[in-house]
Amino acid sequence: MDIIVKLAFIILAINGWLFSGILAGKVSAAQEVPYFSNRDIEKYREPSDNRRSPAKPAGAEAKRDAAAQLREQKEGEYWCRKANSLRKRIENYRDDVQELEKALDELKDRKGKKRRSLETKLLKAKKHLTSSEGDLTALEDEAHRKGIPPGWLRCQFE
Asked: Do 6 and 36 belong together in one domain?
């Protein structure tokens, strides 16, 4: 008896599943979401839909452009000043190195305090020169990463 109930239940479940699929197809076709094409939409178009949105006043656009130009100019001047100060520093250290080397060449046969102090100064000047050259390279790399035109670092503005 227990097996007969289980078998009847399985048969009812299978029939329900089969018939629900058939009936679901008929019901879903009746409840289908409407589809509209461009032709259908044209029927509901109104003359007011053809109007364009009001244009922004030319003065506001001109102000925005002028502000953008001013920002760009200030940014260009900033990069120019930074690069120029580093170049001047490098030039000064190169001059110092050359002067110290000349002074050491004059004292090449001598040994003593004066020569040692010149050698120490020369080492410091070379260290500062190397450091400044590295700073300029770092500035150029930063400008490149930020998309700054190369002319700004050379103070060549359009």
From this structure: yes
